[in-house]
Every structure is written in C-alpha cells, then in structure tokens.
Amino acid sequence: MADLKFEKESTALLVIDPYNDFISEGGKIWDRIKSVAEANGCVANMLQLLITARKVGLRVFYAMHHRYRPGDYETWKHIAPIQKATWSRKTFEYGTWGGEFRAEFTPQPGDIVAQEHWCSSGFANTDLDLLLKRHGIQKLIVAGLIAHTCVESTVRFAVELGYDVTLAKDATADYSEEFMHAALVTNLPNYAGAIVTTKELVGLLSSK
Amino acid sequence: MADLKFEKESTALLVIDPYNDFISEGGKIWDRIKSVAEANGCVANMLQLLITARKVGLRVFYAMHHRYRPGDYETWKHIAPIQKATWSRKTFEYGTWGGEFRAEFTPQPGDIVAQEHWCSSGFANTDLDLLLKRHGIQKLIVAGLIAHTCVESTVRFAVELGYDVTLAKDATADYSEEFMHAALVTNLPNYAGAIVTTKELVGLLSSK
Amino acid sequence: MADLKFEKESTALLVIDPYNDFISEGGKIWDRIKSVAEANGCVANMLQLLITARKVGLRVFYAMHHRYRPGDYETWKHIAPIQKATWSRKTFEYGTWGGEFRAEFTPQPGDIVAQEHWCSSGFANTDLDLLLKRHGIQKLIVAGLIAHTCVESTVRFAVELGYDVTLAKDATADYSEEFMHAALVTNLPNYAGAIVTTKELVGLLSSK
Amino acid sequence: MADLKFEKESTALLVIDPYNDFISEGGKIWDRIKSVAEANGCVANMLQLLITARKVGLRVFYAMHHRYRPGDYETWKHIAPIQKATWSRKTFEYGTWGGEFRAEFTPQPGDIVAQEHWCSSGFANTDLDLLLKRHGIQKLIVAGLIAHTCVESTVRFAVELGYDVTLAKDATADYSEEFMHAALVTNLPNYAGAIVTTKELVGLLSSK
Question: What ipTM was assigned to the predicted interfaces of this complex?
C-alpha cells in the first residue's frame, strides 16, 4: 500500500448507485443493507470520499443503475434473475424519490454521470469507458453499492477494460457479512490493485 | 436480392436520428441535406418503412444522437472534429424542438429507443447491442441520417458486432450526391448484405 | 427448471479453460482445485456435457485464457493481481503441455475456439460475442474453470451482453468449498437463469 | 496543425495490416492498390514512420486482419460481403507468405501485436483497446492499409472509443484515387483530429 499513488490528472472517484432506494432511510433496499452499512459507516465514508475527491481535485464519475420504467422488460426474450427482481420491485423507479440520488450525492458541475446500466456493471452498455478516456482517467477509486453485485461487476469490468482499481472497503455494503466477504475477500482481491479503508484513502489523497 | 428474407422474430427496423434538426423544415441541418433528401424522397421513404414495419410486425429500434447539453465537452481532453461541430452548432439541443423526434417518428409503445450515442455509431457506448439481443434480433433494416456519418458508422459497427444489415438507400440523405456516393457506393457495399430501395423493401416485407 | 429448453439452433455449450494446467494431473493449478474437482466429478462432468452436446447437435465454443509468453506484461503500466499471479507462475505457458487442451477436450471440426482472454472473462477483448452471434447463439450452457474467476466473470459478462446462461454446477471447480459457494450460491444465481447438475442437463438435452 | 503534440508516454504508432498480400510485389491485393501506393510512396512512408517512431521512443502497435484458415466461415449464418471476398480469395492465408508481415515491418521486441480482427476495425472483437490502455496510450498515429476499409473503420472505432487520432495520409493506399478521396477527404476529417503527410509527422516527432 505504501506505493499507492493517485495522480490528479489520471485518477477519478467512481461512485456507484448512490440512490435513495439503496442508502436512504425508507429506500426499497435500505433495510436489507442497513445492518452492514451502519456497522461500517458506509454512507458517511462514501460522503467523505466524495468531499475529499472534490477538495483535492479528483474528478467524480457516477455509474447509476437503470431507473425502472413501465415497459422495460415485457418484451425481452430472456431476463436475468437480478433484472427480474428489479422489475418486480420497481427498484429505482423513474420519477420517484427512490430513483433519485441521495441528496448529498447530487452531481455538481464538472461531475460526470454515465448512462444508466441495465444490470450490474457500470461499464456494460454505457458510455462510462468513453467518458473516462475523454478525461484521461486510467485509475479508479471505487465506492458505492452493492458490494457483490454492482460494485463487483463494475470492478471486474474495469480491470478487463484496462483500468487500475482501488476499492474503498468500508464505503460499500451488502445484505450480510457473508456477501461482503464473498466480494471483498474471496473475489475482488484478484482484480482490484488495492482494497483499503476510507481513512487510508483520505490520508493518501490529502497528503499529495 | 431474390433471397432476401426477413423473419419477424429476428429482424428489426433501425431508424437513425429522425430529429427535427435533421429532417424537418427549420431544423439546423435540414438546409444542408434538403437537396438530396427531397430528390430521393428520404423522409417519405423513412416513414413508409416505419409504417410497413409496424404493419407486418417488425420491432422498431431507434438510435438517437446525444442531445447537446451545456457542459458536455468543456472538460474533454480531446474531441473529434465531428463532435466539435456538434458542440458549436448545439445540434439536437436538449429541451428544444430541434432535439425532438420529427412528429411522425415519435416512438410508440413497444418501440425501443437505445441510449444516445456521442459520435456517429448507434452502437458505440450505448445499449443498442444489448437491446437487440434481448429481443432476439439478428438482422437489421437500416434507415435514417446522415449517410456518410451516423448511418455508415452504425452499419460498420453492426457488421463488426455480427449483425446482418440491409440498407434502404433512398431512406437516407446527405450533404450532396458525392457524400451519398461515398457511403452507398464506395463503402457500404462491403458491409451491408443488401442495399435496396424502399419500394423493394416494402414489397419484400409485405409479401411475407 | 421444468421450463428449461435448449433449442439446438440458438444454444451452445461454452467450455472455459480446459487446459492441462487446470484439470490434468501434473498441471500447475491442478493440486489447488483437485479436492473440489474430485469430490464433484468436475472433469468427468465436463466431458459428459461435451459428449452430450456433440451427440444432440449443440455447437461447442471454447473460451481459453491467454497462454503465457515472455514479454506479455513487462511493459504494462498497471496489472491486476490475478494477472500478476499468472505472470509469476507462467500459467498456461505457450508451447508447453500445461498450455494445451486436456486431450479429451481437443477441439473437433466445427467447434469454435474464441481468441484468448487476458484476464477472467471469455468475452472481454475477444471475438467470443461475435462468433456466438454469427452462429445465431442466444443461450449458453457453461462449464469449466475456475468457478469464482473465469467462470463467474464469463457468466457476468454473458448476461450483461444479453445472453441467457445455464451453469453446470458440478462441471466446475475451485480452491475450496468456500470459493465454490461464493460463486455458485452467493453471486451467480443473480445472473445465470439456471444453475443445475450435469445429470439434469444431460437429461434435458437428451430428451429433446 | 501548429499545435499537434505527441507525448511519448501517451502516443503510439498504429500500423494496420502490413501483410505481404497488401504491400509486397506478388501479394494477392498488391496489384489493386499498387497504382495509388506507388504514386504516394505508401510503403516507404509507412516504413519511415515506423523507423521514426522507434527512434523517438513511441511504442508501436499492429492491428492485423484475421489470417484465413479453412473452416472460418462455413458455419456462419450471415457473412458480410467484405468477409465473403476475403474467404473466396483466401486473403492473408495462414501459413503462407501472403499472410506474413512484409519483412521490414516484422514486429520487434517491445512492439505490441493485437489479436487479429475479423472484418475491418482493428478494435472490434480484439484486445487492441485493452493493450493501448495498459500502456497508457491516448493518442494514435495511424498508417496502413486499406484506406476506405480497415483504416477508416479502425479510425472510426478509435474515435468512438475515445482516442485522439492523427492519420498519415500518404502512408495508406487504396484501389483508386476515388476510394482515397472517400476515406481521406469525405469521411475521415470528421473523426481524425489531424490528417497530415508523413513528412510533417516525421518533422513533428523528430523535433521533440
């Protein structure tokens, strides 16, 4: 970890799915991740990373899940289980509070919001890779929800596409510690170049 | 051409960029393509294909260019000339009439509108490929604007991605016959499996 | 599961990384997965799926990892941990026995071998998606190695790209039951439409 | 042009298809492009760019077309006209002289050869984008064959993927001046940030 360096010109903070439905009291999924998220300070850590990124001049990107709209899936020939669940719950429903950014994470001028993703990877079928390239970004600091689905898929894709990824392990959450372990201990150490705490990241970024 | 067949289950009509700015009197680009478009009946042919597709039960997909919004390009490290032109003209400006579908081409229930594309290919950095796959589409009938930019790039990408393409040569237009020739005679015969008239297409589709 | 159907025209068997280094006695990784693989009959099941696929006329695709060659990674600016491990172990070394297909899995005429993948997904940076499309394939039956890396990434990518996936849960293996659980129980039920035994699959395929 | 700058760290030379079949006396396609190639000094210019790139320390990438092998296309459901032509001519046949690099363009240690492409774009279904990213490349100087097919598709894809492209207009060739005009004058000025002569490029690179 001693050699973790984040050049402002080529590093971005990538925040995944800071929707009310995930991380606000009353959101459709909040109750399912609340226990883990409150234990590790997930939302506060996500916010601290965001504030630090802005302060030190890292550009902020958002990878947001498709907001549910009627008619989305009715005509699909096949649908993945995770999409079927999204459909039945109308998660992130377009035009509702649940499908809005949690207030503190509302994009500010200069932030980049990629097109919405249909499944779990922020890169699949979106303009995220293009927008990162157009801003010269080669390294990503990743935070957001949910660890074993969108975060893990986005990190797996990022690495396949050639990005260097650092994951903030306490700025994500999941249904239980078992799910967290599968993502953070079993799988992502293969792909993320570093998996560190928010405190370590903030220290590294601030000491530049 | 005798063996052109379009199974309803696996063929879609792909309409590219039917924005007012392109094909409506008063649109920002209309004056530049009007001469060619009026000579070959481009808009009427596009519409006839759309009506025929609906009548015979082909699913309709739309590939729409990114609508200009302030802040789109200011932070890019590099920008392609065609994007610089879009930026300076504010083509397809979000929230304006020019950035709306020409009325007759307004999507209807069951139509699929892919995410907006940033440059010329309807496939690049969008969900078009995913949505075609999720509907079992393997063949595309392509119509729309402009022949040597978005149409040509979309067809080149479609073929690279494994689709079979039939192009309606009089349901597209361009700045001059020279540009039309470059797209329809010089380049696209390498990629499109067939390049035919709207009349031929309507005949083939209707006789099923 | 009752409604699992595999049309010959649109379904393929996708075999991931049947290299000697993974699944043959003496292979570089075999000792690490042997315990799980012998417990569930992984290799025999992979082979039975292959034989059944050929018998009933399903096309067979192979997604093979990049074979190590000197000079592969020396000039990379960043490298993922899993690639660093591959580099240091020279896994699947080009020109060696470990980098050859285990004999029974040698491709036969009509089989399709996609280009080698650099990390874990058989789709990333390869022609697998193209070759599946060119053969009309929309559904995949997936088997191979290793569950939480190449199999999971390939399935995650397949679903993001629009394929319907059925996973043979006893035709894969991993370092321990914990890793198997992370892939087969924690993560992949979100993406694979079905996760079944080889016996069930062979029954379904043979009864067509 | 005055502001064209090529930082060694982020710029690469991309050479497209320097196969004997294209640019060597006796190659299958050479007779069709010879007239244009001899008029503009195409091969000598490609070579001068290569030598200059090596001298000033730009990394060299090669995008090579799929070499024909028996069985390639027999099972495809659809095939693009340009692929059908490749098939019937057995262009770049694997294991033959025509499918080898022209001698002066043989890759040297440190050069990167991307996986072979099936159609015209060096990016489609290959690892070119990954390998460029892993080497920190954001700008491409493009040279090679043929202007209106592989060069144009590769440039169109490069720009869609977020690269800045400079094209060497006399280090490419085509069947006739009409084809050259379609690529270099009609189409590529929309995508390439600059289209310049080899002499200008060598001057710019050497004066760094």
Answer: 0.97
